[in-house]
Amino acid sequence: MSPYNHLTLKDRECILLGVTLNDTYQVIAEKIGCSKATVSREIKRNGGRKAYSAVKAQENYQGRRLKSRRPRLLTDLKLRDFVLHCIVQRQWSPEQISGRLVHENSEWHVSYNTIYRGIERDNLGIKRKNHEARGFARKLRHRGKTGRSALVTLVDRKSRYLLSQRVPKVNAKNVTQAMIDLLHTVTPKRVRTLTPDRGTEFAGYREVSQELSIPVYFPDPHAPQQRGTNENTNGLIREYFPKGTDLDQLTDQDIDKFVRDLNHRPRKVLGWKSPFEVFFGTKLRLI
């Protein structure tokens, strides 16, 4: 904390009294507990001994304070609209927004703390439905529930690129076919190994291995950390869908859009590149 204390209106009234009594700067400084130089600067910048006014000096001080404050970045409507779009439509976090702006050398620079403060302060300018509503804060972290259908997810360990398909029911037949269909959408040279978990729905792993000519490995029992990338991605998927979402009510287009959005979301672990860019070795402009 700075040791410097700003003069108050009471201090300035004391200075005015000292000026009226023709006290020296040193005497005035001792009365209000500041340096002689502070008193000298205060009087000189506010008309000198003959014209000093405590009220006017206080107004001048408050005006300087307002001018010295950095403008709030999110008063830029274009930047605010961009941030809102990324949170609501793309499901990006404030940190991902900030990091990607830096990655693309954007003319906009905004920290994730500034975005969080904007949400806390005024919901980024969007009126809440009621006083207690959390507004866009609800978009940042949430979990959803599913119906009978489920998502089969395959994630590339290096790039975090996601392949996903909905199956009407979780069983070995549906999951096996979904994995084969998904892995056939990428070139064979990109598929080297497969590491599913130990659930019974992956009982058809031999068929997958034979169809794609790849080895299949399984993690040790009760060792989800051996499939950390997939577990983390599943967490992102659960957070993506709003609370109460039933997968049975989504269309295939909804699923495809979700996968596309997640693959184009910048990741801190990838240096703010997207999984799509790393997986395919390309560069996109996402902002």
Descriptive tags:
287 residues; mainly alpha; Nucleotidyltransferase, domain 5; 3 domains; two-stranded antiparallel ribbon; 14 helices; rod-shaped
Question: How would you characterize this protein structure?
Answer:
The protein has 287 residues and is mainly alpha-helical. It has three domains: 9-68, no CATH class; 73-140, no CATH class; 150-249, Nucleotidyltransferase, domain 5. Helix content is 47%, strand content 4%. It has helices at residues 9-20, 25-32, 36-44, 48-51, 54-68, 77-88, 94-103, 112-122, 137-140, 172-183, 205-212, 228-240, 252-263, 275-280, and strands spanning 150-155, 162-167. Strands 1-2 form a two-stranded antiparallel ribbon. The longest helix is centred in the first third of the chain and has 15 residues, at 54-68. The two termini are 38 Å apart. The mean pLDDT is 83.
